[in-house]
Amino acid sequence: MEDQLYPSDVKDWTWDTIEFLADNDVPESTYLEYKKHLSYPTGENSDKSKQKWRRNLEREFTAFANGCGGILVFGMADSIDPAPFEPPEHEVRRTVNQYIKDTTPVVEIYVSDPLIPPSENTDRIALAVRVFEASRKPVKASDSSYFVRVNDQKQPMSREQLESMFVEADRRQQAVRQLEFEISRFVNSFEENIEEVPNRDHIPPLEAVDEQSLRGALRQNTHLFSDENIQEDIIEVMGILDEISSAKREFDEGCRNMGRVEHDSYSELNKVTQVKIFDLSCRLDSKLRDVKKKTQLEFP
Question: Which stretches make up the Schlafen AlbA-2 domain (predicted)?
Answer without folding.
Answer: 28-158
